[in-house]
Every structure is written in C-alpha cells, then in structure tokens.
Amino acid sequence: MANGELDLSSGVPLYRQIKDILRAEIADGVADPGKPMTEEQLLGRFEVSRAPIRQALKELAVEGYVYRRQGKGTFPVPGARVQRPADVRPGALYQYLSDSGLHPASKVSGIQRVEPPARIRHRLGLEEHERLLHFNRLILVEDEPLIEASVYLRAPEDFSPTAGELEDEGSAFELLSRRFGMTLDREEHEAWATAATAGQAATLGVREGSPLLVIETIFFATGGLPAGWRSAVHRAEEFKYRFVTSR
C-alpha cells in the first residue's frame, strides 16, 4: 500500500486496506480534522465499490478514529492514535492493540515475589506478609512508548514466568489461564491526570511536567476474589479510554 495505494494482488480485503490507509493518515496528522471523509470522495480516490468504503468507515468509527456528525459527514478524530473501548476484556489490551494493526511490543523488567505496599495490600484484601508476583511492563506502539505499568499478581508460587514469556504473551493473565485455569470476571478502574516526573518523562519520551493519564485497576477472578492490581501511566496525547454509559 505504498503512497496510500491499494494492492489488488495482496489478498488483503479491500476494506481492510482502505481502513489501514485512512487510519495511518489520521494518526500521522495528514487527514484534515475539519474536512469530512465522504463516501463520494473516497469512491473517487480508491475506485472501488461502495461496500468496502462503508465497511472501512464503520470500523474506523468503532475504533474511535472517526466520528459522524448528523448532516455533515464523517470526520477524522485528531490526536490520540490509540482508542481503547471499555469493553476490551480484562488483560486483553495488548491483543486489542495487535488486532487493531498497531504493532505493539512490550518490555518486561523487575520480575520478583514481593510484599506489596500497604495501600495495595488493603485494596486487595491481602493477609499481612502475603507475597505477590510483581513486574513492570513498558508497552510500545509503532516502536514508541505508550504505557508504563506496574503489576502485582496474586498467583501460585510455582508461577514464575520469564520476561520473554510475558513479552511474547502480552498478558500475564493469559499465561495464568492456560497454566492454572484462572479466569477473570471483571476489573474496576480509577483514572486521573498527573504531570510526568523526570523518570516517567525519560521512559515515555515526553517532557517533564507533561500531562499523563493514570489508570489504576483491580482485577477480579471468577467468584469475586481480587486477583491483581495494576497502575498504568499513559501518554495522554496518544491514548484515549472510551466508554459508554446507559440508563
């Protein structure tokens, strides 16, 4: 798809190629957020039928890259490359990023069994001196740092994954599910804005004092037992957490 052109011999569905081209243009700031993406304009550009155009725009809207204004058309969403829907299941963000074509990678460090800080112990209802598996994960998208996370897991003592295993899997919960049958039921989040410390700025590639989004999560296993805690710090200009409420 060099220079935004379709490759009719690739075997990749046309709607997916169109979607990937438009998504890249939106993420790179090429698409004008004030100019609608009309079906007619895209039909003339890509010279395909209307069906793949509509499917591409539909999926871009679901992923948060475009939005529809009644009577005005479909417009690019400026800013964040990553739009995380709230219905992404617990522990599956990495897979969601991969399925979205964002080429995620992760770097895991500091794997050890530790007694968590008192605040985390109280949030998880732990016994005094109970030790959890702890590690840090840096998630990158398109080779750029996006999320720095600190994770504490309530896992069996013989669960001792290597950094490579955690990096390849993208989720410790997927490993726990396969090896021990542990499944997650739900997660509870708290989110707030903060300013980047010197350490966070160096890790995430932003200026010290830049805005960051913190999402703190408690994971619950089936049956309601707290299974883990995570604090994830996100580059605010690159990440949006999208959710819907209903009455």
UniProtKB/TrEMBL annotation:
Residues 12-79 form the HTH gntR-type domain. It holds the Pfam family UTRA. Keywords: DNA-binding, Transcription, Transcription regulation. InterPro entries: Bact_HTH_transcr_reg, Chorismate_lyase_/UTRA_dom_sf, Tscrpt_reg_HTH_GntR, UTRA, WH-like_DNA-bd_sf, WH_DNA-bd_sf. This is GntR family transcriptional regulator. It comes from Amycolatopsis cynarae. The keyword Cell membrane does not apply. Signal peptide: none annotated. PANTHER family: MANNOSYL-D-GLYCERATE TRANSPORT/METABOLISM SYSTEM REPRESSOR MNGR-RELATED (PTHR44846), MANNOSYL-D-GLYCERATE TRANSPORT_METABOLISM SYSTEM REPRESSOR MNGR-RELATED (PTHR44846:SF1). CDD domains: WHTH_GntR (cd07377). SUPFAM superfamilies: Chorismate lyase-like, Winged helix' DNA-binding domain.
